[in-house]
């Protein structure tokens, strides 16, 4: 009976199902490592140490997770409103470029410049996302097609921007750095001062963290998750957006302007992805570079949203998981010679099972039926 209750719990609970998918990802990743001649337990121990053994490793994991949480929120928000936003990558790029331009050209004190740069990036990327919403609502062009096309336009647009005279860095494939006033790194000026360095030399833990580009981005990302949850669950706007997502024709019959709310949904979704790009520029890279290929944050956001069950707070945890695996996974190649690509296989496996829930659920239900029949035969 207890066994049946456990199986039933896993077939009916989305959280439990996600945990099964993650576990299967680790098992399959371990099997591939084993068949390749590497000890999977050693590899996972190396990954674990590469995430938690030093304060700087934890800091880098959080830094890596921040844009993933926001692009995951971007994709999840669109999913919840009935839209499939493949364009988070392009919106991320537009947000990055807008932040780099605003952070370089606008001369203001930090207290004004930082929110202004973020606002400019949010509006720019929101408009980029809204273009796909407009094309869908007015002309019936599917958002998957339009956002894929907009991704490439964004990439080449950034490459053009990095070559603007006065903004391009001489003899480089990158732009000039943003002003110090637009920098959101923790205590950046202080930690390079004589007083700051003297204090840090006496506090090893703080020194380990602050020697990384630790920044306010993670705080903003968590606040955005809270805001998305409030919008979707506690506001009239969220009710109308979700109504459009559940059933467009029923929403239209109820008097909701579905074309308008499609555009609003894609604007908000694009804004979140663009904010990820802006925070990365303001807190980590401080400039933009000429891109030969997509950076991948937007596409990774799709996996983060799926692992997080398209929920605002679920996306935070899946973003941290994704960021931890991405960062810790880089340690297995130098430490034991195992291919770091195994992490991508693990993540792909997790997403595969999450996106095909019926495979696991049908298997578990069959086990449940067999156990019931056995119980009946015994009686």
Supply the key terms:
379 residues, mainly alpha, ABC transporter involved in vitamin B12 uptake, BtuC, 77% helix, globular
Give an account of the 3D structure:
This protein has 2 domains: 1-36 and 339-379, no CATH class; 55-338, ABC transporter involved in vitamin B12 uptake, BtuC (Orthogonal Bundle), CATH 1.10.3470. It is globular and about 75 Å long. The chain is mainly α and 379 residues long. The longest helix is centred in the first third of the chain and has 30 residues, at 110-139. The protein is built from 19 helices and no strands.
Q: How much of the residues is beta strand, in percent?
A: under 5%
Oligomer classification: single chain
CATH architecture of the largest domain: Orthogonal Bundle
Number of strands: 0
Largest sheet: none
Write down the Rg: 23 Å
* CATH structural class of the largest domain: Mainly Alpha
Indicate how many domains the architecture comprises.
Answer: 2
Structural class from helices and strands? mainly alpha
Provide the CATH topology of the largest domain: ABC transporter involved in vitamin B12 uptake, BtuC
What helical percentage do the residues reach?
Answer: over 70%
- The average pLDDT value, as a whole number, equals 87
Distance between the termini: 14 Å
Number of helices: 19
User: Which regions have little confidence, pLDDT < 50, spanning 5+ residues?
Assistant: none
Categorize the overall geometry: globular
């Amino acid at each position: 009976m207890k066994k049946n209750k456990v199986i039933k719990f896993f077939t009916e609970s989305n959280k439990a199902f996600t945990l099964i998918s993650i576990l299967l990802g680790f098992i399959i990743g371990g099997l591939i490592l084993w068949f390749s001649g590497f000890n999977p337990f050693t590899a996972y121990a190396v990954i674990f140490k590469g995430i938690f053994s030093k304060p700087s490793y934890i800091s880098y994991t959080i830094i890596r997770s921040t844009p993933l949480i926001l692009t995951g929120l971007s994709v999840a928000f669109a999913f919840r409103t009935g839209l499939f936003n493949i364009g988070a990558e392009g919106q991320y790029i537009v947000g990055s470029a807008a932040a780099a331009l605003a952070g370089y050209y606008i001369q203001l004190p930090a207290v004004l410049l930082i929110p202004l740069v973020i606002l400019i990036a949010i509006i720019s990327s929101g408009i980029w996302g809204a273009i796909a919403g407009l094309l869908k609502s007015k002309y019936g062009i599917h958002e998957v097609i339009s956002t894929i096309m907009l991704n490439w336009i964004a990439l080449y647009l950034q490459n053009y921007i990095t070559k603007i005279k006065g903004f391009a860095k001489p003899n480089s494939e990158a732009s000039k750095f943003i002003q110090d006033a637009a920098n959101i790194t923790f205590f950046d000026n202080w930690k390079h001062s004589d007083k700051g360095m003297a204090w840090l030399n006496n506090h090893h833990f703080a020194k380990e963290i602050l020697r990384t580009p630790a920044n306010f981005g993670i705080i903003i990302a968590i606040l955005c998750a809270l805001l998305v949850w409030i919008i979707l669950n506690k506001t009239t706007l969220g009710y109308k957006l979700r109504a459009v997502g559940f059933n467009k024709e029923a929403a239209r019959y109820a008097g909701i302007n579905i074309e308008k709310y499609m555009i609003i949904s894609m604007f908000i979704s694009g804004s979140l992805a663009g904010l990820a790009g802006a925070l990365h520029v303001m807190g980590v890279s401080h400039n933009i570079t000429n891109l030969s290929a997509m950076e991948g944050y937007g596409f990774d956001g799709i996996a983060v949203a799926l692992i997080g069950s398209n929920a605002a707070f679920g996306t935070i945890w899946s973003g941290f998981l994704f960021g931890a695996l991405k960062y810790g996974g880089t340690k297995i190649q130098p430490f034991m010679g195992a291919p770091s690509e195994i992490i991508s296989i693990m993540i792909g496996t997790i997403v595969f099972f999450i996106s095909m829930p019926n495979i696991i659920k049908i298997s578990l239900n069959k086990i449940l039926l067999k156990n019931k029949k056995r119980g009946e035969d015994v009686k």
